[in-house]
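Hey Z.,

So I finally got round to the NAP thing we talked about over coffee. Here's the setup:
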Amino acid sequence: MEDKTPRVALVTGGSRGIGRATVLALAHDGYDVAFCYRSDDEAARVLAKEAAETGARVLARRTDVTDAESVRSLVAEVENELGPVDAAVTAAGITRDNPLVLMDDDQWHQVLDTNLDGVYHLCRAVVFGMMKRRHGAIVNVSSVAGVYGHASQTNYAASKAGIIAFSRSLAKEVGRSGIRVNTVAPGFIATDMTAVLNDKARKEALSAIPLRRMGEAEEVADLIAYLVSDRASYITGSVLQIDGGITI
Ligand code: NAP
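And the result:
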């Protein structure tokens, strides 16, 4: 008989943008969903309420992904309250753009600590349980900057390239344990992260995108929801670009 027990998903950076849309997509797909965020309690509260309206059990926790111990505690709490994590999505990410000649050590380390160490912390905390259960799907959010590079983003691009290499390596390690690990690499997506772009940068970006628009967080969330689902049962180690064609 088909197992109807709701699966459990955990999303980092769930309070806003792509993470937020992913929380809602997974709740609509029947998952019980936990998410963490860094500071925006009000955004998290509103989202938790909206996600719970689907009937999902929802757990929202303020947890800084740069802190390994906090992430371990988060995973323990989620597994205790909702059950074993079947799907893990790392959407927490920041930018601190500057040309390298002007970059300071804080800008470098904050971006690497959040974007790359954050992925390591979450994957490290969930992977053993997934291996024991011989089941699990992980999607890490990279960026086209991690594939092709982007001026003024040496820190960000390095973190996002690291995520791709990390995810492919992990996919090779844990495939035999029934765990799939994939990466999505979005282009320009309309979220708070890109709302800071000035008009000139926005115009330049739009003219380089064959589809002539920025992507929506929901479009990325749909791809993530597909990748964690059994519909993607033979996809692992892939890097799926979702970028309106900007990299063609
Ligand atoms: P966003 O709207 O700025 O949201 C970022 C989310 O990450 C927020 O929920 C934020 O929590 C959380 N966060 C940041 N630092 C954190 C930390 N140390 N611990 C826990 N949570 C933290 O960003 P977005 O545009 O949705 O981006 C989501 C992911 O997609 C990022 O990894 C980003 O690099 C990637 N991406 C975005 C684009 C794009 O065009 N938007 C393109 C390519 C890749 P608070 O709200 O509490 O601060």
